[in-house]
Amino acid sequence: MLEKTEFDTSSALPSSQLPPIPAKRYFTIGEVADLCGVRSHVLRYWEQEFSRLSPQKRRGNRRYYQHHEVVLIRKIRALLYEEGFTISGARNRLEEARGELRLRDELQAVLQILSK
User: Fold this and answer.
1) Using an 8 Å Cβ cutoff, are 70 and 32 in contact?
2) Helices of type H across 23-65
3) What are phi and psi of 104, to 5 degrees?
4) Side by side, which strands form the sheet with 26-28?
């Protein structure tokens, strides 16, 4: 009989110890898994749960992630593994942060208009 294995978050590297993201345009799923400290099947699952995470698919359904998606995966990983959020909690937190960025951008645009 196969034993059920559980992911031990205490053995996961903290975000501060992850390797730097190289200056490349595209990354394979294996490269992203190594850069973010998660397994490939976890990345495929997160694609289903987080709508902003959608790598390009090419020949043979191979996934190619861009730099901003690798950064997003690291944020998701930190929320789930380090801050203890659930999947839905992490999704909500990312949407809140996205809304805050939009608001900041709008306020900066208004400030530029007013300063002219």
Assistant:
1) yes
2) 29-36, 40-49
3) -60, -45
4) 26-28, 62-66, 56-58
**Is the pLDDT score of 2 beyond 80?**
no
pLDDT of residue 116: 78
Evaluated on CA atoms 35, 17, 87, 52, the torsion sign reads negative
Kindly state the tokens that stand for 15. 């975000």
Residue 43 near residue 13, CB atoms below 8 Å: no
Q: In what helix (H) or strand (E) does residue 26 lie, and over which residues does it extend?
A: strand 26-28
pLDDT in tens, 52-98: 999 999 989 899 999 999 999 999 999 999 999 999 999 999 988 87
